[in-house]
Amino acid sequence: MRHHTIDIENVNVHYVEAGEDNVSQSPQQTIIFLHGFPEFWGTWHAQLDYFTKNYRVIAPDLPGYNLSGKPQENTFFEVPNLIQFIAKFIQGVAPQQKIILVAHDWGGVIAWPLTAFFPQLIDRLVILNAAHPSTFTREMIHNAEQRQKSEYIHDLIAPNGVENLSNNNYEYLKNKIFVGMREGTLSDTQRKVYEKVWAQPGAVNGMLQYYRA
C-alpha cells in the first residue's frame, strides 16, 4: 500500500493505492472505493488486499475524514459539489481509462449521481447499502418505517453533534459501527485504528458536515 495526497480545488485528498497503472501495453483497470460514515480508507482493507492481485486499487479518505482536508464551508458538502469534486479526483488519479467505482453508504450517495452525470469516467458501478436517491426520497415521504430508521440523523445535525459523538471515547460511533457486527470482522487493533481516525483534528465535525449540508 502506497500513501499519496492529491490537491483537488485546494483540498488535499489522502488516498491509498496498490497495484500498477502502466503495466506493459495493458494497464490494470483501476477500482476506486468510496467509504461511508463514520469510516475511512482502511474500511476497505480486505477488498484492497484481495483485488490488488488483478487490479490497481485506490481508496481515498473522503474530504472531512481522517487525513484528508477538512473544508469549513458547509456548501462544499452539498451533493452537487461533492459530485464535481470526486469526478475531478477520479480524473486526477486515473486519467487513462474508465474505472470501476465501489461505494458504500455516503460514498454511494455520491456515486449514484456521479455515475449519472459522468458516465464517461465509470465502467462499472457497485453500490453497498446506499439506496438510489429517488428511491430513498420516495421511501422517506411514504414509508413511516424508513423515517423512523433515519431518525438518528437528527442526532448528527444537532448543534451539539460533535460533542455527542466524541463523548466517552466515541461511544456513540462505536455503538453505530461495532454493535451488531459479526464477531471477528474487526480485531481489537483495527477497532483502535477507528478511534485514531475519529480523533484526527476536525474529523468528527468533518464527518457531520455531510449531514448538515
What do these coordinates show?
There is one protein chain. By secondary structure, this protein is an alpha/beta fold. 45% of the residues lie in helices and 18% in strands. The chain contains nine helices and six strands. It has a six-stranded mixed sheet, with helices on one face. Helix 2 packs across helix 3. It is globular. The mean pLDDT is 95.
Descriptive terms for the model:
213 residues, 9 helices, 6 strands, globular
How is the secondary structure organized here?
Blueprint: E1 2-8, E2 11-18, E3 30-34, H1 45-51, E4 56-60, H2 79-93, E5 99-104, H3 106-117, E6 122-128, H4 133-142, H5 144-149, H6 152-157, H7 161-177, H8 188-199, H9 203-212
Parallel strand pairs: 3-4, 3-5, 5-6
Antiparallel strand pairs: 1-2, 2-4
Helix pairs in contact: 2-3
